[in-house]
Design brief:
The protein is of the alpha/beta class. It contains nine helices and five strands. The protein has a five-stranded parallel beta sheet, sandwiched between helices. Bound molecules: adenosine monophosphate. Adenosine monophosphate binds next to helix 2 and helix 3.
């Protein structure tokens, strides 16, 4: 199984790159942000809880997120048989540790982590643009600012976590989606 963690700040292109990767390598895409937005749309109780955190640009508590991820993985065993792209998970060290345990219990592991490196001013521009086009409620300047702060404080320590395990591959995330994909593909070809 090829299990890839797409890692990067909000607006770094994780979703865009994941979409191309799943088609190229027949992997299963788990975007925790999409799972939460789907619950919000359907008005589930998880959706109601998630909405409050998302609107403030904060992270959903780890325990809840870990349970959600485990159930998505277990509900999609057949679709995920070649491997999974984890997009937007893990976002904290406890989530990364839980992912390790979860995959180990299922006889597999993280094959590699692809970190998309994009300067902050470009991230903000991309997110504001996406907000205009998609109407995503958390793509406004105030929420973007707190999401970037949360990323810097809680998520970016994962770079060291994965670098120490020899799993981190940083890729320049600017220059257009296709150019970035060529860089991502090179990393995948080297680890698969
Ligand atoms: P995303 O679509 O990945 O940018 O996620 C949108 C929002 O969903 C984030 O700002 C968080 O509030 C929440 N979220 C998504 N994934 C996670 C996660 N792994 N842990 C905690 N919160 C998350």
């Amino acid at each position: 199984m090829l299990n890839i963690v797409m890692f990067g700040a909000p607006g770094s292109g994780k979703g865009t790159q994941s979409e191309v990767l799943i088609k190229t390598y027949g992997l299963f895409h788990i975007s925790t942000g999409d799972v939460l937005r789907d619950n919000i749309k359907r008005g589930t109780s998880l959706g109601k809880t998630a909405q409050e955190f998302i609107n403030k640009g904060q992270l959903i508590p780890d325990e809840l997120m870990v349970d959600i991820l485990a159930s998505v993985v277990d509900d999609n065993k057949e679709a995920a048989k070649n491997g999974v792209i984890f997009d937007g998970f893990p976002r904290t060290i406890p989530q990364a540790e839980a992912l390790e345990t979860m995959l180990e219990a299922r006889g597999t592991k993280v094959s590699g982590v692809i970190g998309l490196d994009v300067p902050e001013e470009i991230l903000i521009g991309r997110l504001l643009n996406r907000g205009k086009e998609s109407g995503r409620s958390d793509d406004n300047l105030e929420t973007i600012t707190s999401r970037l702060e949360v990323y810097n404080n809680q998520t970016s320590p994962l770079k060291d976590f994965y670098a120490e395990k020899g799993l981190l591959h940083m890729v320049k995330g600017t220059g257009g989606a296709e150019v970035v994909f060529e860089r991502v593909k090179k990393v995948i070809e080297a680890i698969r």
